[in-house]
Amino acid sequence: MLTRVAAQLALCVALAATALFTVVPSATAEEGENCHLVEVDVGDGETTWVEECDDSGGDDGGSDDGDGGGYEPQCDLSVHDDVHDGASFWCEGTAACWGNFPSVFPEDEWEQLAGGPSPGEGYIVTYVECEPGESGWQWVLPPEDQGPSLWDLAWQAYGNLATPDFTLAFSPPDQAFVNLATWYWAEGPANGELIGESTGAVNAIATPNRVEVDPGDGSGVLQCPFAVAESDECSHVYAQASVSHPDGYPARMRLVYDISFTNNGEPLELDGLPTTLESPWVDGPLPVAEVQSIVIE
After folding, report:
1. What pLDDT, on the 0 to 100 scale, is given for residue 151?
2. H-helix segments, the chain
3. pTM, rounded to two decimals
4. d(CA 248, CA 235)
């Protein structure tokens, strides 16, 4: 079974590309920001739309924190409860907005309604009302015309990466001993790349970097080569028996991968994208016994 990772943003991108539109320009965006709408699960089977902005200076840029998650509704859409069901609703910063989509007026009347020419190919004119904020007929660009950015596709690909299941293996296999080196490795995963795909040409590639092992005795986390077979590449010597832990020391391990992105097979580098992928920690309690020995110098 594969362990799914960080898929929330990937789902938002796919839904946003078919369901709503972005108002241009954004009244809440600071100069140089790139903004688009994402759909957010607010619980009880309901969703809302939230404007997300980054300061990368372009359609392919990054976010402020680069974690790709944690979106929360920024406005109260309930102020528009009396608006007809056919309207589309979204948050523009803290302003709650709704609009008619598609436009209810013919194309030859759009320029007069909006009070000016179209800002570019693909724009339509529809009625938009925000609370607080201005209301009226505005030029808008449907997302099916602009499509997801490389930034969105990269996060989607990252969200489709999956780390393999594994077990924490030891040698000696059942019980370690004080002053005798214990070896650790990951039993189960292959020592190869993982690929996460997007709905476009962007892929996320996870390359094995290392395993991290916590022996459980308070000595700290070990940084070891990506060991998936028995070897002495990752070892630790316990100084005391696990008498205070009836089930053994709470040893644990996780896999760590380096992340890179490609677009149509060529390297893709965008500020703010994730650079690592970690599996969940896997526990492996390990009893440690003390044996009598004679040291001869």
Report:
1. 83
2. 8-19, 110-114, 143-146, 150-159
3. 0.53
4. 17
Phi, then psi, of 209 in degrees rounded to 5: -115, -55
Amino acid at 267: P
Report the alpha-carbon distance of residue 221 to residue 133 in Å, rounded: 53
* Contact (Cβ atoms closer than 8 angstroms) between residue 128 and residue 23: yes
Phi, psi (degrees; rounded to nearest 5) at 115: 75, 25
- Contact partners, residue 82, CB within 8 Å, separation at least 6: none
* CB-based contact 196:159 (threshold 8 Å): yes
pLDDT tens for each residue of 190-200: 999 999 999 88
pLDDT of 12 reads 35
Query: How far is it, in rounded angstroms, from Cα 203 to Cα 263?
Result: 7
- The answer to whether residues 181 and 236 touch, using CB atoms and an 8 Å cutoff, is yes
- Contact present, 8 and 70 (Cβ < 8 Å): no
- 281 pLDDT tier (thresholds 50, 70, 90): very high
Cβ contacts of residue 167 below 8 Å, gap of 6+?
Answer: 186, 187, 188, 282, 284
Beta-carbon contacts of 294 under 8 Å, excluding residues fewer than 6 positions away, are: none
Task: With beta carbons less than 8 A apart as the criterion, state whether 137 and 109 touch.
Answer: no
3-state DSSP helix/strand/coil % of the chain, to nearest 5: 15, 40, 50
Longest dimension (CA), the chain: 98
Shortest CA distance to 209 belongs to which of 184, 190, 226?
226
Average pLDDT, the chain: 75
Query: Rounded mean pLDDT of 154-166?
Result: 94
The pLDDT value recorded for residue 112 is 87
Q: Which of 80-89, 198-207, 286-295 has the highest mean pLDDT?
A: 198-207
C-alpha distances in Å from residue 153, one per residue of 70, 242, 257, 279: 18, 48, 20, 22
Mean pLDDT across 204-231: 96
